Amino acid sequence: MDKVEVIIVGAGPSGLTCAYTLAKAGVEVVVIERGEYPGAKNMFGGIFFSSIMSKIFPDFFADAPWERFVGKRKFSLLAGNSEMAFDFTPSAFNEPPYNHSFMARRGSMDQWLAKKAEAAGASIINNYCVSDFLYEHDKVVGITSGGDHDTLLADVIVCAEGANSLLSEKARLRKKIMAGRRSIAVKENIRLPRAVIEDRFGLTGRQGAAYEYFGASVQGLLGNGFIYTNQDSLSVGVGFSLSDFTKTQTDKNPNDILDEFKSHPVIAPLLRGGETMEYMAHMIPSDGYDYLPKLYRDGLLVVGDAAGLLNTSFFHEGVNLAMASGIFAAETVIAAREQKDFSADTLEFYEEKLKKSFVLQDLKNCKNFLSFLHKHKSLINDYPVLLNNVLVDYFQVCEKPKIQIKKEIFQRVKKNVKFTRVAWDMWGAWSNLI
Amino acid sequence: MTNNKKTALHSPEKQLTLEDKLFLVKTKKDTVSHIKVNSKMCKHCASKMCLIVCPAKTYEERKGVIEANYENCLECGSCRVICTDGAIEWENPRGGFGVTFING
Ligand SMILES: Cc1cc2nc3c(=O)[nH]c(=O)nc-3n(C[C@H](O)[C@H](O)[C@H](O)COP(=O)(O)OP(=O)(O)OC[C@H]3O[C@@H](n4cnc5c(N)ncnc54)[C@H](O)[C@@H]3O)c2cc1C
Ligand code: SF4
Ligand code: SF4
Questions:
Q1: What pLDDT score was predicted for residue A1?
Q2: What mean pLDDT do residues B69-95 have?
Q3: What is the number of domains present in chain A?
Q4: Option in A41, A236, A268 nearest B99 (CB)
Q5: Structural domain harbouring A140
Q6: B43: CA distance to ligand 2 center in Å?
Q7: Is A80 helix (H, G, I), strand (E, B) or coil?
């Protein structure tokens, strides 16, 4: 059986960054990808957060296939047929380094990263799906695609398989993933002429807009809808917690929920005349700090989404955590190689690095985000409607004195909600969500 | 057998059906299914959640038996995660088979 120094399973941002870092240090590394090419199986929102990327590849801005920089952001609450939104276009987001936030498509971005890893000396094998690891006693020593001859051995293996973590389960790094640990997202790529996108979203040049919609955007489920502008198309999708979906016992499937989002009176005009090019689905990890899988064992490290390293709060950061974990895994492997010891005792160093960095500190900080929202669904369902009604009443044009309108609003709100409850919810939201 | 049916002319406000959308997905169909349903286990399942959660409506109930039309699968993995009875045996399609997302 052939043997190499390091095998990486999965050519996403975590696996490819790991491969690049290893190859650059002179380590023999092979990346195995089940798709036709890196990115072929991948889908995200998405915003490529590039702070790490532009550090390792200074030509990122000039050369990478990003679509638009995120110059405009909007957080919106949908209620019935209405919208309330917080929209901001800070000048800092519209000047280099553009807050390290770029709209991208995974097919082209992952291939760009793969070229960088190959140029540094990594090999990439596409069209090969790893069905299981090979073991010697309790140590992971290789991979197989199922056939007797399709095997490859290595000193150490990095599992970068993403959110549908089959191999991590097989390696007993985690129990079978349950609905509480994942969200589902469906997305359409909708083509529109560049000039229409720029006029409709008020954009100039390569400026882009990232709009996130909460509340009625996903039928009151724990999740949100989104619109991101590419150069000549929009990414339009919805994502929500699988456990909330199963508990809600809706008979709408994710595609129905996406269709209803698209036809919401606030959303439909933004998509008018567009042509759907593609329909896609993917899971998003929501393991949370307290339920992360084991991150290593003898001969094996797990990185990125497979390790549940995703910031589930408003920030939606995934790719930068994936890349950071890929780099930490590579540094750990380089140190282990010097000691010629790939046992769990040495690989433990990886977890320490994650703990000291923003990756596990941010995950720890937002660990109550989803459970808090699960318990306080009124925040996404009732308050947007309430707030909307208050605003409609407040701005109504009529012959009543304003002071009387204010009194009426106060009375109506008092009838519908308990102020102590609102204060309590807001305090909870402040401490758990922000 | 690569199946890249390019785009169909339409606009979102005309609401494509799910079949229209699946028609747009580039897929290389395998001859073997990557999904197996152990329908004996489904007998105790009240929710039949696989029929609802799947964004490609891969699952169908025929004469009380749950079947997976694996060719439609978008490989998200959600069915595997929500089936608490462990009736779904789900593996990735073999290397190079299944979906290819162009605009992910
Ligand atoms: C709808 C959606 C929106 C998102 N939006 C954002 C966003 O705006 N910003 C952000 O930062 N993050 C976002 N994310 C999260 C982000 O996409 C992930 O955190 C990131 O892609 C994780 O990278 P990864 O390398 O760990 O895994 P992936 O990118 O999933 O890569 C895994 C790779 O492994 C391959 N693979 C899997 N199993 C095998 C196997 N057995 N054999 C061989 N190859 C295999 C896959 O084909 C794939 O190429 C979003 C995710 C989704 C689904
Ligand atoms: S959810 Fe699982 S157990 Fe229930 S019907 Fe579907 S496959 Fe069977
Ligand atoms: S993996 Fe996703 S698309 Fe495929 S059958 Fe399961 S739920 Fe449907």
A1: 81
A2: 96
A3: 3
A4: A41
A5: 3-68+102-175+291-370
A6: 8
A7: coil
Is residue A62 located within the same domain as residue A121?
Answer: yes
Contacts of B78 in chain A (CB under 8 A): 182, 184, 242, 281, 283
Per-residue pLDDT band for B10 (boundaries 50, 70, 90) equals very low
* B2 has a pLDDT exceeding 80: no
pLDDT for A108 equals 96
Q: Are residues A35 and A130 in the same domain?
A: yes
Alpha helices in chain B (DSSP H): 18-23, 39-42, 50-53, 78-82
Q: Which of A370, A397, A423 is the last residue of a domain?
A: A370
Residue B34's φ and ψ, nearest 5 degrees, are: -95, 0
**pLDDT confidence band for B7 (50 / 70 / 90):** very low
Give the tens place of pLDDT for each residue, A160-173. 999 999 999 999 99
Residue nearest to atom 4 of ligand 2 (CA): B48
Do B85 and B48 contact (CB within 8 A), yes or no?
A: no
Cα three-residue angle A67-A72-A74, rounded to 5 degrees = 120
Q: Cβ of B11 and A191 within 8 Å?
A: no
Return the pLDDT at A100: 96
Ligand 1: residue of A42, A111, A235, A236 to mutate (most ligand atoms within 8 A of CB) is A42
Neighbours of A119 (CB within 10 A): 11
Break chain B into its structural domains and give their ranges. Answer: 3-101
CATH number reported for the structural domain that contains residue A143 in this entry = 3.50.50.60
**What pLDDT score does B14 carry?**
66
Residues A256 and A107 in one domain: no
> Quick one: tokens of A294?
């084991």
* Structural domain ending residue among the three candidates A285, A317, A332: A285
Q: Which residue's CA is the nearest one to ligand 1's atom 19?
A: A318
Q: How far is B59 from chain A (nearest CA, A)?
A: 12
Q: Which residues of chain A have pLDDT under 50?
A: none
- Tell which one of A37, A44, A170, A187 to mutate to probe ligand 1, the residue whose CB is within 8 A of the most ligand atoms: A44
Residues A154, A37 share a domain: yes
Lining residues, ligand 1, CB within 6 Å: A 9-15, 32-35, 41-47, 49, 129-130, 160-163, 167, 185, 187, 237, 239, 282, 284, 304-306, 310, 316-320, 322; B 92
Indicate if the pLDDT at residue B6 is higher than 50. Answer: no
pTM listed for this prediction: 0.94
* Bridge partners (DSSP) listed for residue B46: none
Among 3.40.1490.10, 3.30.70.20, 3.30.70.1120, 1.10.3720.10, name the CATH number for the domain at B3-101. 3.30.70.20
Does residue A40 lie in a domain region?
Answer: yes
- The ipTM value here is 0.92
What gap in Å lies between CA A302 and CA A161, rounded to an integer? 9
Rounded Cα distance, A247 and A375, in Å: 13
Give domain status of residue A344, yes or no. yes
CATH number where A246 lies: 3.30.9.90
Q: Please say whether the beta carbons of A114 and A11 come within 8 A.
A: yes
